[in-house]
Write a structure and sequence with these properties.
Blueprint lengths: L4 E12 L2 E12 L3 E5 L6 H8 L10 E4 L2 E2 L5 H6 L2 E4 L11 H6 L10 H14 L15 H14 L4 E5 L7 H16 L3 E5 L3 H7 L2 E6 L2 E7 L5 H9 L17 E10 L3 E9 L3 E5 L6 H7 L8 E6 L2 E3 L4 H6 L2 E4 L3 H5 L6 H6 L15 H14 L16 H13 L5 E5 L7 H16 L3 E5 L3 H7 L2 E6 L2 E7 L5 H10 L5
Parallel strand pairs: 3-8, 3-9, 6-7, 7-8, 13-18, 13-19, 16-17, 17-18
Antiparallel strand pairs: 1-2, 1-4, 4-5, 9-10, 11-12, 11-14, 14-15, 19-20
Length: 499
């Protein structure tokens, strides 16, 4: 027997100047179901979430029914009052407040806080999730996973009927993801619905009951999860079959470009040794917090080791500053494109040309407009960045295209060694495929690439060799073509104690 449809939306459109973000979209959500909302970056998912949450108002003609009665969500407060709560990637909590205070937020009466009520509400909400936590601990002292649990506890304490989870596993380790799945199953048993947004297909198939797909702001369809497989879902999202499993090729490794010997940094990584060859893609993987990012940052002068040696083309080098790394033709694309990869309030053109700005100055020290325009347009075309408007602010591009801009920004330096941390984090499937093809193409041309990735499918599809890290140490190294994939994953989770 099908569950009650308590939220039904139809003819949902949203127009911004020059852009129709949503065009007559439909969505219905049943009590106690996990409903995945899928689509490429720019498909309209974020806009639809904002409308459900009361952040934005749809165009005239939209119809929203709650338990069969027509309603509006003119504000976030109105949406919350209707039992809808959104848990965003930034969590929207206060690190300087305690767990209890964060859960209790917004319930003070005439500016006064009933501290006993505050504690009781927090304890009750955490108990419903079967989570034990010190409610008087400052939120900022907790891991991202525990902060997320606090956000969920706050939502259910507000009598939520629908929780919107936007990329909830983005910063979680494997074990933390499994814990979140268990929480989701508990919420389902309480008849709470989850609107689940994720780019990771394995997650969608793991937890979802139904899937609604958007493409270019339009409604594509809604299917029960058992009616779909990954290929069918991808085709709904991008309009064609997309595959990156077949990209793995024979290794082009030959000349040794980089050799790292026993580098260590207190509290970050210990006794790291490896080599990197011309035309090779070397993957670093492991659970979140394994020390992968800290290790590769050491090669770009951002996290210099306390001891050990680094050799480039057989010569010992110092990489204690970014400028030193760039002189040795090393480029680094960080995981967080918003905070570290791009200057969001600058144009795409200025972001792309920033690392080579000194080379684009005329004799009077002014930027040569024709050169910057020509160079940025070259990489816009190479990476198929859409739209190709070089004057457009970086913040106004979709996540997939922002990542392409971040890649272009460092490809202009023409590096010998490219380090890329989580190359497709938060990127839609079509953009992911394009980035994978680009990396393979660069390797084929002789570029040596170090890739940090948490996605095993990406690691095995793209890299020639994989280094597995755990607790700041290398616990396994093998070929992705001939090595035991199960053993690699086991090492990441259990370390040296197994096998």
């Amino acid at each position: 027997m099908e569950k009650h449809v308590f939220l039904e939306m139809s003819n949902i459109s949203m127009t911004f100047p020059g852009v129709k973000a949503l065009d007559q979209v439909s969505l219905n959500i049943r009590e106690g179901e996990v409903h995945a909302l899928m689509g490429e970056n720019g498909a309209g998912k974020s806009t639809l979430i904002k409308i459900i949450s009361g952040v934005q108002q749809p165009d005239p003609g939209a119809k929203i029914l709650l338990d069969g009665k027509e309603v509006e969500f003119p504000s976030v407060h109105a949406s919350i009052q209707s039992g809808i709560n959104a848990i965003h990637q930034d969590l929207s909590l206060f690190p300087n407040l305690t767990v209890a205070e964060n859960i209790y937020l917004g319930r003070s009466k005439k500016g006064k806080i009933d501290w006993k009520e505050c504690d009781n509400i927090a304890l009750e909400a955490l108990e419903r999730l079967s989570v034990q936590m010190d409610i008087h601990e400052l939120l900022g002292n907790l891991s991202v996973a525990k902060q997320q649990l606090v956000a969920i506890a706050r939502a259910i304490s507000l009598s939520s009927r629908l929780l919107i989870m936007d990329e909830p596993t983005a910063a979680l380790s494997f074990s933390e993801v499994r814990m979140l799945y268990e929480i989701i199953r508990k919420l389902k048993k309480e008849n709470i619905a989850i609107l689940f947004i994720s780019h990771k297909l394995d997650e969608v198939f793991e937890v979802s009951d139904r899937v609604t797909v958007l493409k270019d702001g339009k409604y594509v369809g809604c299917k029960n999860i058992e009616e779909l497989d990954e290929s069918m879902l991808v085709q709904m999202m991008v309009g064609r079959s997309v595959s990156y499993e077949a990209l793995n090729q024979e290794s082009h490794a030959s000349e040794k470009i980089l050799e790292v010997k026993n580098i260590s940094r207190e509290g970050n990584f210990k006794d790291i040794s490896f080599s990197l060859h011309k035309g090779e893609i070397l993957a670093f993987t492991g659970l979140v917090g394994a020390g992968r990012s800290e290790t590769v940052k050491a090669l770009f002068g951002l996290n210099p080791p306390d001891e050990g040696e680094i050799f480039i083309h057989g010569k010992k080098v110092e990489l204690k500053k970014v400028s030193q790394a760039m002189r040795h033709k090393i480029a680094f694309i960080p995981e967080d494109r918003h905070q570290e990869g791009l200057i969001l309030n600058m144009s795409m053109r200025d972001n792309i040309t920033l690392p080579v700005l000194s080379e684009l100055l005329d004799r009077l020290g002014f930027t040569n407009g024709k050169k910057t325009e020509s160079l940025s347009e070259e990489y816009v075309k190479t990476l198929n960045i859409r739209p190709g408007q070089i004057e457009k602010m970086a913040k106004n591009f979709s996540g997939g295209n922002q990542q392409k801009i971040a890649v272009a920004k460092w490809l202009v330096t023409k590096p010998d060694i490219l380090i890329i941390d989580e190359p497709t984090h938060g990127v839609d499937i079509a953009s992911k495929t394009e980035i994978h093809k680009l990396l393979k193409s660069l390797a084929k041309q002789g570029m040596a690439i170090i890739m940090v990735s948490s996605e095993w499918q990406e690691v095995f599809a793209l890299s020639d060799r994989v280094i597995v890290m755990r607790h700041g140490r290398i616990v396994h190294e093998d070929s992705t073509k001939t090595g035991d994939q199960n053993l690699m994953m086991e090492k990441a989770i259990l370390g040296e104690g197994k096998a």
